[in-house]
Amino acid sequence: MAYSRLRRRSDQRKALLRDLVTDLILNGQIETTLAKAKELKRLADKMVTLGKTNTLHSRRMAASFIRFEKDEEGKFAIQKLFDEIAPKFKDRNGGYTRVLKTGFRRGDAAPMAIISWVE
Question: Cystine design at 53: which of 34, 58, 64, 114 (Cβ 3.0–4.6 Å)?
Fold first, then answer.
């Protein structure tokens, strides 16, 4: 898959996007720069599509990308994706996340955005 470069080497970029997808699944919304949020939207929508098929193959594909971290209740991110998030979108064909611009960051004036799941 071709990613936006985000001024990083490929291994750093993949690690960053894996962390962002995992945090979005665990927390429901995150605040990041606009460029990272736009790139994260593509990957998060792909993970929900894998979650909707819910086969062994789709679980392994998602597990190869999502980090094995737990939320406050002790559920792994992959469990939360397949058990809670994906069933909410079973009647929806894409567009599972929204990106809201919030302004500019103090210090370097980078455009910031909040990315969250569509309810």
Answer: 58
